[in-house]
Amino acid sequence: MATLEISHTWDGEPVDAAERCAVDLAGTEVAWIVEVDAPFHGDPPPPAPAGALDGLWTFEVVELFVAAAEPTGAGVDYTEVELSPHGHHLVLRFAGVRQRVARTEPLAVRCRIVGDRWQGRIELPRDALPPQPWRANAFAMHGQGELRRHLAAAALPGATPDFHQPCVFPRVFV
Question: Fold for domain 2-172?
Answer without folding.
Answer: Immunoglobulin-like (2.60.40)
